[in-house]
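Page 37, continued from 36.
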């Protein structure tokens, strides 16, 4: 009797382009600049990407370009959260200290502020042209393409 194996690793095969963006802008300002310079229509989703085991949430903007079969996502890579810090008993002041903790959606790219995920079914998006337009925006420090297959935590990009 023959045995058949199913490889589950290749089950999710979504072809997309991923661009890392370094900038110090707020998410809504970056979305506005991308809409203006790349002629997109990114809109903020009602719900953020939420990871309960990390207790962090990340803002997400999206636009489904139905004419060209392209789905655009702008995702924040950092989440800063204020939590209660450790305090020892017997101190002079009884107030608890607050500690600002930083979490990252893709932990391999801790210095990246945002990711632009472009899912195109028929691959009609020119990645070099997008990078050229992104680097022309003065508020963006730098941007570059990232190979999604080399990311260990690429499951965080499935939404």
């Amino acid at each position: 009797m023959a045995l058949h194996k199913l490889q589950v690793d290749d089950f999710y095969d979504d072809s997309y382009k991923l661009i890392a963006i370094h900038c110090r802008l707020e998410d809504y300002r970056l979305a506005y600049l991308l809409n203006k310079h790349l002629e997109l229509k990114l809109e903020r989703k009602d719900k953020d990407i939420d990871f309960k085991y990390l207790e962090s949430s990340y803002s997400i903007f999206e636009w489904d370009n139905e004419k060209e079969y392209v789905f655009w996502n702008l995702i924040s890579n950092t989440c800063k959260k204020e939590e209660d810090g450790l305090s020892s008993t017997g101190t002079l002041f009884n107030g608890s200290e607050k500690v600002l903790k930083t979490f990252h959606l893709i932990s391999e790219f801790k210095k990246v502020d945002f990711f632009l995920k472009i899912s195109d079914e028929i691959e009609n998006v020119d990645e070099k042209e997008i990078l050229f337009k992104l680097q022309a925006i003065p508020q963006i420090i730098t941007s570059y393409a990232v190979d999604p297959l080399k990311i260990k935590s690429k499951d965080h990009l499935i939404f």
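Helices lie at 27-38, 127-135. Flag for discussion at group meeting. The chain is about 15% helix and 35% strand.
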